[in-house]
Structure formats: C-alpha cells, structure tokens
Amino acid sequence: MNRLLEPELMIEPEQVSAYAEADFEEPHSNFIDLLKHYCSTLYEARSVLDLGCGPGDITFKLTKAFPKATIDAVDGSGEMLKFAEDILEGKPWLHGRINFIHSMIQDFNSTTQYDLIISNSLLHHIPEPLVFWNKIKELSSPETYIFIMDLLRPDTIEEAQRLRDLYVKYEPEILQRDFYNSLLAAFEVDEVREQLAKEDLSNLDVLQVTDRHLIVFGNI
Ligand SMILES: C[S@@+](CC[C@H](N)C(=O)[O-])C[C@H]1O[C@@H](n2cnc3c(N)ncnc32)[C@H](O)[C@@H]1O
C-alpha cells in the first residue's frame, strides 16, 4: 500500500481537543519504558529535546524519567501548545524545567548540546521525511542519544481499518479519522532504513516494537 499524506500540522480546534483529551496512557507509558530500556545510562541527562510535542503528555512524563533534565519541547501548532502551556501552568514545580517552543522543526535551531532527542508520532506528519532526519542530524552531537517512535504503515487498507477498530473504536470520530489517516501516512521499517542510509545515519537501529509502532534509536 502506498503512503498517503495527511496534513502536517494539527491545528483544527476539534481535532486538537480530541487529541489532547484522549487516553494515551498505554502507548505513552510504553514509549517511556522502551526509552529507559534502550538508554538506561541517560538517567542523569541534563538536556532533552522533544520534537512535535503536541499537548505535552510525553514531555511531562520525561520530567519524571529524567529528573535532572531541562526539556525543550517544540511544536508548530499553537493550538496544541496552548493545551501544553495550560497543563504546565497548573504544575508550578515544573516551571523552569520545560520550555514549550512554538516552531516548525524545520525552522528550529538551538545552541544546546542535547543529551537526548526524542520524538513520538511526528515523522509520519512530515511530507518529506529526509527533512526530519536532516534536522535530527543538525541538532545532534556525537554524544546525543536519539530515540524516535512512530506509527508503522500497514500492508493493506483492511489492516489499517482493523487497527483503527482495535485501538480507537470508542474514541471520538475525529480521533478515529486521524489515527486511520496517520497509519496510511506512516512508513514501513525498510523505508525508514532507506531514509537513514540516505542521510548517513545508518548507525541508528530500527525495530518494530508493537503491531503499529517502530522505534529508531542510538547515537548518530
Ligand atoms: C500526532 S501529534 C504527536 C504529539 C506528541 N508527540 C504525542 O506523542 O502525543 C504530532 C504533532 O506534531 C506536530 N507537527 C507536525 N509537523 C510538524 C513540524 N514540521 N514541526 C513542528 N511540529 C510539527 C503537530 O502539530 C502535532 O502536534
């Protein structure tokens, strides 16, 4: 099945509130567990970058996983960041530990040497994936650990429908639509390996970790 693009940014008000209010406890906790498993030495990390942070659920989880870290969290959607900022407002003990930054990743630059760069569910939103990997390279030093999770494109429409019904059947219709469209916009493991090879990033490992997720991890 060929890749079918979905809109890059999530800015529709109904779409954003459905996403921000959805229960992602299972996949997001799995993200943190896998991250800790594959970078167990990073507990002491001081600087973390979260690309495409959305309403910040994973960003907030990162503050617990990396208690000494300051986290820069970037998203191109002001609507998403409004949710994230409102949650941060209610957690004064985290003020100074998270910087939510409104920017397209294409335009984002930083002088920080990040110990860790993470991203969840962003890659499939980017029309030209090499733009994403280029930015990762640009923002990394040889010591930076990379941990990316994204959806996997199923082989068939029927499989995409099956996964939608299995995982988001009882969620609002708009979330079901977005999940389905995201599956169709995602990449296969071999496509991601090709992207990494083109960008001279073959040091990074690619692994399928669930029926709908892959991870990319390592030092560049
Ligand atoms: C599916 S959400 C994932 C949010 C969050 N990482 C999570 O796991 O809950 C993808 C986010 O990436 C943002 N996004 C898409 N393309 C982007 C780009 N080029 N630069 C910055 N943010 C982008 C969207 O606006 C959206 O908030």
Structural write-up:
With 220 residues, this protein is an alpha/beta fold. It has one domain (13-219): Rossmann fold. The chain is 41% helix and 18% strand. The chain has eight helices and seven strands, in the order ααβαβαββαβαααββ. It has helices at 13-21, 25-38, 57-65, 78-89, 129-139, 157-168, 173-185, 189-198, and strands at 47-51, 70-75, 98-102, 116-120, 145-151, 205-208, 213-219. The radius of gyration is 16 Å and the shape is globular. The structure holds S-adenosylmethionine (SAM). The site of S-adenosylmethionine has 21 residues, from helix 3 and strand 2.
Q: Which value, in Å, is the CA radius of gyration? A: 16 Å
Which homologous superfamily in CATH is the superfamily?
Vaccinia Virus protein VP39
Bound molecules: S-adenosylmethionine
CATH topology: Rossmann fold
